[in-house]
Amino acid sequence: MAEGQFRLRIRYCKKGRLCHLSHLELVHAQERIIRRAGLPFAVSQGFSPHMKLAFGPAIGVGTGSLDEYLDVWLTRYVDPQEALDALHAAQVPDLAVLQCSYVGDKDASLVTALTVSQYLIDLFPAGEQPDLEALIQKGLDDIRAAGSIQVMKKNKVKTYDLSLSTVEPARIIYCEDGVCQIELMCRSRDDGSLRPELFVQELSRVAGVELVISCLLRVAQYVEDQEGLHRLV
Predict the structure, then answer these.
(1) Domains of the chain: which residue ranges?
(2) Is residue 64 within a helix (H) or strand (E), and if so which, with residue range?
(3) Dist. CA 159–CA 151, nearest whole Å
(4) What global pTM score does this model have?
């Protein structure tokens, strides 16, 4: 961190119609919010100066989140509550800021620190399926027994070892009124991360029923270390 700069960490949500922002659009939206809030943001050096920001692991278009993070570097210290109040006055409801705190220059980057994402996925069958819960449970059991998932990516077969790509087996949270919600805990990996959409694609194949995602929500992100999982702030 450059001398005289302060690294403010912002936790926020992404929901409603803004779930459909791309990562680049999200960056631009947050830049506008920070500018409107009047925070004294630092600017990068070089040929194309820009606001000094760093985001956590990217989230897919159409996926909502209750636990997103970004770091912004400020040129002077602003009390975290004052910064939070200013951001609240400038934010849009679907990108609501939840928390502000300072982190040190030796703290790991957000992308490095946050390696586990917890998702809730609401599914319904493309047609009538009275035994939906039983089919999905059998599909989850079969995937767990297989221990891996294979998908086609760019005309190549990609294999995800579930012992590495997930923290624990996916499970059903509830199943009622023709909708099943499952929980999936995915790890971010350098060799490719298992996306929830790919897991549902495999679940549909194994269960023998076409499953449609009605809601995909990242409810939390975690740091994983020798002591297990814990929240960033």
Answers:
(1) 6-107, 115-230
(2) strand 64-74
(3) 7
(4) 0.92
DSSP string, 67-118: EEEEEEEESS---HHHHHHHHHHH--GGG-EEEEEEE-TTSPPHHHHEEEEE
Residues 1-47 pLDDT 10s: 455 699 999 999 999 999 999 999 999 999 999 999 999 999 988 78
Please report, to the nearest 10 degrees, the dihedral formed by the alpha carbons of residues 195, 199, 200, 204 taken in order: 150
Cα 193 → chain centroid: 12
6-107 is a CATH 3.90.320.10 domain = no
**Structure tokens belonging to residue 205:** 């194949």
Is 115-230 in the same CATH topology as 6-107?
Answer: yes
C-alpha to C-alpha distance for 21 and 61, rounded to whole angstroms: 6
